[in-house]
């Protein structure tokens, strides 16, 4: 990324800003803005719980001063109960959070350096609440940029996928368990820091317990899901994600369902801002943001809306790898979505084969009862690219799956959108799940997963209800896969793989399931085929070089460490995935603070014992300055029986080596067709 030091406006940075709320709570903020001698400017809010003074300080320093230097006041505000803000953070996207956001926007709009117009932007949490606040229509809000977020908190978030419990539900809950345990900085809040810290330790709670008690799409998940009524959003929306991210599907749905001016952008990236995007290529995303904000917050008649509604990175075929520096491909565009250029082609599935559209297939069937080890090469539901976490060669997982291969392609094939597998099937158990994968198989046999989908088969009507399956009864189900833009070269094959487990990406069903797929013409693969002509709607290089302001100065005191290990013990037949994400220790020179973070995750199963899946996590967070040294250690363990989930957790907090808080949780949560 190119570091920019010469900007159109001189930037003033306000540290230690306090924003008062109507209930007396005070939120901590950091604001970058043009010099006050200039005309008032629009304000842009990023409202997240990740500590603007330290944990996101380096990232923030590349984004917000850049936008401020182009004529905007940018505010990074810590949510209630995070960073140096008062209160406790008790869950994500609560009504309190959204009311707080509205008050913060009103406060920004009333400042003498603000023109009275505001925007919201953010990645992940900040992208979520930008959408949610937009649906509440605060008076000053003029537009939003939402990255790596979703309009549907149940169907398409870190918790559940297709009604199946995601392993990332445990991982993410453990992350927030650790982050909400962190203290405020005494250098900012003074002697009140212990009182504020104890409030967090006592009231933030174990969010995983809450999330596991809502296994269907109920009112808990409907809250904050703007898909309930997209017409509530009346401001322009730019929606952004990456193919390695977990949230690309929302971009398509927003482009289809919104009626406001909107742009969709999906690159090859993981869960990152596009100017920092990996896998690359990273792009000049902040320049794009300036054009967007100029158009909708300042009324500048530029050409930002002359671009196609949807721009995506059409990925070329690559060998399987858990990490890529760059994904070869090109930018393509569609003027609207759904695109009339996309042809949904239906390929009947026959014994071991994907047949051509319109083919007649003989009446047949194929059965599978997948071992619990299928899925150990799946990577994460949402890639962060550190440690390397993309799916690896699918051949070992294919060994425990039903596999259907196409003939060798004789010409190039490109798809854009969400493939689907339609299944006619029977099962021999009342609760079952299915995973379907689409892979690109090279001539040498290596299989690169292109996309996949999960479905809890007990959710026959919709995700708000579940009912037992009747063993032996014929059912039909459509399993949508994640949207993707992918090119398949001549000589390669397409592969559909079907399995009855996908651990640890998804929690397995209560007992092994025999799935029989009926191959009588109703079991099909549906591909969204894009023409491979030269009529793309965008120029070959639509974005400039990635750029931002120089990052905040820091010093690495202890190196980082990343691991992603699959291990199998052939004595007791235990298989495990072990993940280490150790960010080492970093000194933030401007505030003389040393920070370290380490997460260890282990996911194990034993033989084919469906009561054996276990996920354990441990997080260590430490903050140190002079004679002030605090650390929190949080652990979470999730296991299950056929009837219930068993959740055990601990939280220990230390000040200068002395333990000042110790809490434990031991809960049993009934399974509901999961």
From TrEMBL:
Pfam families: Peptidase_S15 (PF02129), PepX_C (PF08530). Gene3D superfamilies: alpha-amino acid ester hydrolase ( Helical cap domain) (1.10.3020.10), alpha/beta hydrolase (3.40.50.1820), Galactose-binding domain-like (2.60.120.260). Keywords: Hydrolase. GO terms for molecular function: hydrolase activity. Residues 319-344, 530-554 are annotated as: Disordered. InterPro entries: AB_hydrolase_fold (IPR029058), CocE/Ser_esterase (IPR005674), Galactose-bd-like_sf (IPR008979), Xaa-Pro-like_dom (IPR000383), Xaa-Pro_dipept_C (IPR013736), Xaa-Pro_dipeptidyl-ppase/CocE (IPR050585). It comes from the Bacteria. Residues 290-549 form the Xaa-Pro dipeptidyl-peptidase C-terminal domain. PANTHER family: COCE_NOND FAMILY, PUTATIVE (AFU_ORTHOLOGUE AFUA_7G00600)-RELATED (PTHR43056:SF10), PEPTIDASE S9 PROLYL OLIGOPEPTIDASE (PTHR43056). NCBIfam families: CocE_NonD. This is CocE/NonD family hydrolase. It comes from Streptomonospora algeriensis.
């Amino acid at each position: 990324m190119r570091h920019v030091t010469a900007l159109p406006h001189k930037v003033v940075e306000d540290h230690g800003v306090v924003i008062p709320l109507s209930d007396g709570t005070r939120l901590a903020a950091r604001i970058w803005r043009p010099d006050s001698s200039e005309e008032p400017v629009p304000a842009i809010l990023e409202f997240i719980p990740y500590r603007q003074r330290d944990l996101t300080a380096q990232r923030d320093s590349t984004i917000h001063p850049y936008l401020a230097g182009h004529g905007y006041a940018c505010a990074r505000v810590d949510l209630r109960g995070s960073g140096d803000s008062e209160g406790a953070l008790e869950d994500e996207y609560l009504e309190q959070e959204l009311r707080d956001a509205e008050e913060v926007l009103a406060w920004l709009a009333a400042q003498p350096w603000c023109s009275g117009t505001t925007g919201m932007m953010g990645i992940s949490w900040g992208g979520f609440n930008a959408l949610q606040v937009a649906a509440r229509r605060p008076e000053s809000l003029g537009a939003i940029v939402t990255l790596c977020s979703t309009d549907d908190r149940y169907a398409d978030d870190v918790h559940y996928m297709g009604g199946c419990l995601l392993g990332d539900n445990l991982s993410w809950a453990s992350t927030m368990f650790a982050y909400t345990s962190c203290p405020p900085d005494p250098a900012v809040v003074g002697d009140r820091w212990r009182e504020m810290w104890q409030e967090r330790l006592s009231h933030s709670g174990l969010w995983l317990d809450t999330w596991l008690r809502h296994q269907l799409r109920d009112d808990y998940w409907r809250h904050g899901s703007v898909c309930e009524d997209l017409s509530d959003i009346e401001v322009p929306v730019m929606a952004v994600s990456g193919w390695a991210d977990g949230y690309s599907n929302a971009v398509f749905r927003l482009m289809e369902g919104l009626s406001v001016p909107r742009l969709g952008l999906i690159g090859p990236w993981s869960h990152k801002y596009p100017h920092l995007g990996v896998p690359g290529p990273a792009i000049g995303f902040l320049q794009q943001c300036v054009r967007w904000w100029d158009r909708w917050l300042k009324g500048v008649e530029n050409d930002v809306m002359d671009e196609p509604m949807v721009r995506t990175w059409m990925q070329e075929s690559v060998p399987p790898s858990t990490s890529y520096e760059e994904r070869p491909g090109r930018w393509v565009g569609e003027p609207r979505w759904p695109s009339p250029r996309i042809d949904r082609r239906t390929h009947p599935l026959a014994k071991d084969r994907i047949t051509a559209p319109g083919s007649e297939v003989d009446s047949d069937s194929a059965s599978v009862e997948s071992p619990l080890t299928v899925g150990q090469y799946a990577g994460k539901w949402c890639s962060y690219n550190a440690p390397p976490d993309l799916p690896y060669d699918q051949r070992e997982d294919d060994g425990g799956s039903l596999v259907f291969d196409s003939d060798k392609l004789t010409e190039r094939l490109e798809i854009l959108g969400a493939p689907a597998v339609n299944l006619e099937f029977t099962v021999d158990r009342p609760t079952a799940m299915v995973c379907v994968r689409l892979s690109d198989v090279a001539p040498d046999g290596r299989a690169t997963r292109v996309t996949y989908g999960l479905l809890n088969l007990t959710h026959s009507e919709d995700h708000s209800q579940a009912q037992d399956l009747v063993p032996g009864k014929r059912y039909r189900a459509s399993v949508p896969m994640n949207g993707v833009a992918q090119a398949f070269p001549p000589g390669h094959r397409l592969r559909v793989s079907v399995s009855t487990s996908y651990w640890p990406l998804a929690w397995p069903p209560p007992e092994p399931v025999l799935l029989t797929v009926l191959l009588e013409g109703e079991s099909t693969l549906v591909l969204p085929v894009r023409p491979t002509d030269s009529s793309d709607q965008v120029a070959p290089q639509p974005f400039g070089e990635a750029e931002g302001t120089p990052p905040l100065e820091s010093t690495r005191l202890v190196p980082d460490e990343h691991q992603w290990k699959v291990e199998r013990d052939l004595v007791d037949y235990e298989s495990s995935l072990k993940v280490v994400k150790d960010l080492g220790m970093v000194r933030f020179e401007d505030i003389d603070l040393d920070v370290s973070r380490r997460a260890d995750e282990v996911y194990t199963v034993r033989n084919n014992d469906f009561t054996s899946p276990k996920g354990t996590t441990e997080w260590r967070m430490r903050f140190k300055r002079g004679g002030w040294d605090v650390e929190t250690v949080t652990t979470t363990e999730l296991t299950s029986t056929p009837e219930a989930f068993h959740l055990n957790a601990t939280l220990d907090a230390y000040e200068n080596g002395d333990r000042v808080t110790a809490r434990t949780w031991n809960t049993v949560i009934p399974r509901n067709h999961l």
